[in-house]
Specification:
about 260 residues, Immunoglobulin-like, mainly beta
Length: about 260
């Protein structure tokens, strides 16, 4: 995604438009691009100051801004475009999301060799600075990039298939083949949007919005002709253990259907 940008004129000799200065930022850096548009003009040394208080712009005892003391400099001799990359941490912004919309001041300065060979000093910006000599600056609000959403969390549950609640102190359900052909699945004691269907031969498990956990043998089935008085131990089931959602019956009337599920 392209970053929002702010663009100001780059002005030489106080009145000569020679190019542009474009500023943008992401979550780590501020980018300041100097570009010449004046025919055959080239850069010399570039200077840059960025901060949140113009009182901190370097100046001499007469109040004249001194670009040679700016913290960012680059010899761009012969070039017509250059980008400074300034870490946000270097200008007092440790966390962009704690500084959304904060105003930053930018003072871009450039030495420019004009197309006729003459030399000019240039400043970028659309606001005139104070002092005995001319200079320009610009200000822009920091852009806050979108925050990446947290990764989705997975909830895991033990589930049982069937409409009939089993006995004993621990909750469980079982499937009675003489009941409805389609019966519910309960996960964490709550009915889900899944179901188990008996067609006379096979139990077909539809998990609905749930899925099987990535574990060994998430589907365990045990057939009974007499229902256990309390919840059976699924690890001891023998009718079926595996990951198939279609399980062949063994001729029993009742089935305990244990599922390791997630959502």
């Amino acid at each position: 995604m392209a970053l929002p940008t702010t663009t100001w004129p780059l002005t030489a000799g106080q009145h000569i438009p020679v190019g542009t200065v474009t500023v943008s930022n992401d979550a780590q850096n501020i980018y300041v691009t100097y570009t010449l548009t004046s025919p055959n003009a080239t850069f010399g040394t570039l200077h840059l100051w960025i901060g949140d208080d113009l009182a901190n712009v370097p100046e001499n005892s007469q109040g004249i801004v001194v670009p040679g003391q700016f913290p960012y400099q680059h010899d761009a001799s012969g070039q017509r475009s250059y980008t400074f990359t300034v870490p946000l941490s270097a200008v007092g912004i440790p966390d962009i999301h704690a500084a959304c919309g904060k105003t930053m001041y930018v003072v871009p300065h450039a030495e420019v060799t004009m197309g006729d060979g003459s030399h000019e000093t240039a400043f970028g910006g659309n606001e005139a600075g104070n002092g005995p000599r001319w200079w320009f600056y610009g200000h822009f609000p920091l852009y806050c990039p979108p925050v990446d959403p947290p990764p989705p969390t997975t909830r895991t549950e033990t589930a049982w298939g069937g409409d009939t609640s089993g006995g004993g102190p621990a909750w469980w359900f079982y499937f009675d083949t003489q009941g409805p052909a389609m019966q519910a699945i309960y996960a964490g004691q709550h009915r889900t949007d899944g179901s188990v269907t008996w067609d006379g031969t096979n139990l077909t498990i539809n998990l609905g919005s749930w899925s099987l956990q990535k574990v060994s043998e998430p589907v365990k089935v045990q057939g009974y002709n007499d229902v256990p008085l309390s919840r059976p131990a699924a690890g001891q089931f023998t009718t079926y253990k595996g990951s198939s959602l279609v399980v062949q019956g063994d001729g029993s009337r009742y089935y305990a259907i244990h599922l390791d599920v997630q959502i």
